[in-house]
């Protein structure tokens, strides 16, 4: 599998991009995690990765999307993003997930990326604006990879995304990426309506045929304006998804990404470990993208100081990690709502009904299923997860 995937990467992508990926993302990413681990051992906090939602502007209306569009759109100022990136670099963190809304609607995105050739950027996009010209620009920059959302087959996708022809637009985007020899990813949020289509060998093979190099599986969270709780996966489906991921990693020449389980199959919440946080389009520093509460804003000070002094983030890490190894948002939204009220945190969602939304959420299954852990079978994932994706002391 590793040999075939390496061969695919060498044959299908631009060598300069491959080098940037290996060095900026791989090598520096390992350094970032080590630096993070050292900080944690000293009782300090600063994330190894940062997710920046640069705009709330979007051209789709997906089910379960937590982003509330506004007129005019909320956008992070370029100067604020630059400050954050510079601070991260000083801490040895060079990887940024660029989210939205739809980040390709943000003017000046590629100028910003071009100013930081020593970093690596992953752009979460719905693909509708990923034209040949945009893909060509990504190739010119070299330090960026598109992660295109695909939410199921054509019919399911249009319902899930709240648009028409979204699936064919995403497929076009993938063609533009492969024509321009980009390192390309697909992200899927697995829910009841797309489970059978997405957690399948057929889907994985289709992506390989389209020259996709990595596939990132998310578990659907019923949040936002239109939460659709009926789409939430149950315990058995999550277990089935885990089995599928572990088995596919041993056979398919494509990298399969998840951010939920360690090498032994034990659950993790990345934010509870403190390894990554999220900045929303208004500049609020959040625990993770779907939990829209904060007490700090990057406009109010240096990111390093904000993280260091944040009692809210520290309290959230403690509360989330002591309640479960899984996702507190799914497992215990009421406990989370209580914490948020006690902390007098600001509702950063742009919707009035923040706490009511949380209190109305039912407790659901998450990826934490004690006694049902499925360890990684492939040595490469076992090693990678053991050394670069683990609990960092968050779970005692
Ligand atoms: S709380 Fe849930 S959604 Fe947020 S980082 Fe943890 S596992 Fe992910």
Structure, briefly:
The protein is an alpha/beta fold and 396 residues long. The protein has one domain (2-271, 367-388): Aldolase class I (TIM Barrel). The protein has helices at 2-12, 15-41, 78-90, 109-114, 132-141, 154-161, 166-179, 195-198, 201-209, 235-251, 270-273, 303-309, 311-323, 328-331, 333-343, 354-360, 379-388, and strands at residues 49-53, 95-99, 120-125, 144-149, 185-190, 214-219, 255-257, 276-279, 285-286, 293-294, 346-347.
Q: How would you characterize the overall build of this protein?
A:
With 396 residues, the chain is α/β, with parallel strands linked by helices. It has one domain (2-271, 367-388): TIM Barrel, CATH 3.20.20. It is built from 17 helices and 11 strands. It has helices spanning 2-12, 15-41, 78-90, 109-114, 132-141, 154-161, 166-179, 195-198, 201-209, 235-251, 270-273, 303-309, 311-323, 328-331, 333-343, 354-360, 379-388; strands at residues 49-53, 95-99, 120-125, 144-149, 185-190, 214-219, 255-257, 276-279, 285-286, 293-294, 346-347. The strands form 2 sheets. It has a 9-stranded mixed β-sheet with strand order 7-6-5-4-3-2-1-8-9. Helix 15 packs antiparallel against helix 16 (354-360). It binds iron/sulfur cluster.
Structural key phrases:
396 residues; alpha/beta; TIM Barrel; nine-stranded mixed beta sheet; two-stranded antiparallel sheet; 17 helices
Give the CATH level 1 class: Alpha Beta
* Major β-sheet strand ordering: 7-6-5-4-3-2-1-8-9
CATH topology: TIM Barrel
| Whole-number total of structural domains | 1
Strand residue content:
5-15%
The number of distinct helices, counting runs of at least 4 residues, comes to 17
Rounded to an integer in angstroms, the radius of gyration calculated over CA atoms is 20 Å
Largest sheet: 9 strands, mixed
Low-confidence stretches: none
